[in-house]
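Extended Data, panel c. Modelled sequence:
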Amino acid sequence: MYLVLKALISGVVVAAASEAARRSSLLGAVLISLPLTSLLALAWLYADTRDAAQVSDLSWSILWVIVPSVVFFVVLPLAIRAGVAVVPAMVLAAAATAAAYAVWVWAARRIGLDL
């Protein structure tokens, strides 16, 4: 039951953000750019474990992967503007982001960061 409650609350947050985006792309962008998913994940992790160190570790890990995640938001609009249909553009952007994550993690480990 707890898992269902977590999924329901998380789903409502995402649905609310997408509904806001239909009314105003700026409002939707602001809501979606907030780290809602991260905030929910951190809150659920703390509720489940009561372990502040785990919350801190997850937060730190999220920080390190923000940079490569930006690739998605660069590739997607560029692909759409270049005439790629939305679904293939999303697949392309996701693939480019996966590649950026791989390069980012490789480079971080190469310089001694423990991700």
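The chain has five helices and no strands. This feature is highlighted in the accompanying rendering.
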